[in-house]
Amino acid sequence: MGYKNKSSISCCILGAGTIGMIFAAYLKRIGIKVYILHHEDKPKTVLRARLQGSDLSGDYSFEIVTPEKAIDTDFILVATKAPDVLNALKGVQDVLNNGSDVIILSNGMGFHEKAEKLYQSARIFAATTTEAAHTSESGLIHHSASGRTVLGAFSSTKSPKWLTTWLNAIPDSSWTQNIKIALWEKLAINCVINPLTATHNCRNGDLMKDPALKELVKELCLEIEMVRDAAKIPCAGGPLFDLVSKVIFDTATNFSSMLQDMKAGRTTEIESITGYLVEMATVFEVEVPANKKLLEEIQIRYF
Ligand code: PAF
């Protein structure tokens, strides 16, 4: 493949789900020493994963380590589900209090600020990605789409010393001085597609086929734009409806992550997605009735 083992950078992954494993494989293939972080001593010392569906296909093994090991690594990559981010960080609080670089890759917003307040010695970075993967029943990780990944420091604008290595490892990745723009863009997409597909039990593409659902997509987009403008988050492109429509078309056959969580009986990420938007709407005194209704519906029915 032509990837040389020449990196002296090392990192820990916190949250070894499908996306966590995709990033672990990207980092490992250029020679970064990648560990999987676990709070307690596990009987297993190695985590093995088989990836398929892209040029990452193959068998991987990662050493499982306890938090003390993270002190010697260059960064911790958090790839848990949104509701687990703060708990996962609590498990490594001694490392964070010692001063550490943390990249939070999870969907949603709200926890970055909280992490920064809780662990002031740590440097918090945020990343957002359109990489997609799912685990099949047999435990294989299927890398269904390679995507774009944007990374930035959450409050400061200073880039980390491992940035060049990260950019070499993660395909189609970039550094931004204002990660909040990218986080809001992903939040907006998730606010529309995830709860709508979850409450209507449909594929992403169905949101554009049904005229009533398409109207709802428009209404949600307008409300989100009002909150984003009130929060003074610069808008990267044109109208949000155009961006969301494109994502819906590009992922037409997908079942959204929220619908998958719901079907599997897992806690959804609604609190960090629509919950965060509604919280911001309250702060900036913007009315968001359509988003509020969806939030309540998911909280009552599935949360
Ligand atoms: O959460 C998801 O499912 C994805 O972020 C997206 C873009 C909505 C596509 O399904």
Secondary-structure content class? alpha/beta
Unreliable sequence segments: none
| Overall tally of structural domains | 2
Tell me the CATH topology of the largest domain.
Rossmann fold
Describe the structure using short key phrases.
single chain, alpha/beta, Rossmann fold, N-(1-d-carboxylethyl)-l-norvaline Dehydrogenase, domain 2, 11-stranded mixed β-sheet, 11 strands, binds pantoate
Structure description:
With 303 residues, the protein is α/β, with parallel strands linked by helices. It has 2 domains: 10-177, NAD(P)-binding Rossmann-like Domain (Rossmann fold), CATH 3.40.50; 182-301, N-(1-d-carboxylethyl)-l-norvaline Dehydrogenase, domain 2 (Orthogonal Bundle). The model has no long low-confidence stretch (mean pLDDT 92). The protein contains 13 helices and 11 strands. The longest helix has 22 residues, at 179-200. The protein is globular and about 50 Å long. An 11-stranded mixed β-sheet has the order 8-9-3-4-2-1-5-6-7-10-11, with helices on both faces. It has helices spanning 18-29, 67-70, 85-90, 93-97, 111-118, 163-169, 179-200, 206-209, 211-230, 240-250, 257-263, 274-283, 289-301, and strands at residues 10-14, 33-37, 46-52, 58-65, 75-78, 101-104, 123-129, 132-135, 141-145, 149-153, 173-175. Helix 1 (18-29) links the parallel strand 1 (10-14) and strand 2. The structure holds pantoate (PAF). Residues 189-190, 193-194, 204, 247, 251, 254, 256-257 line the site of pantoate.
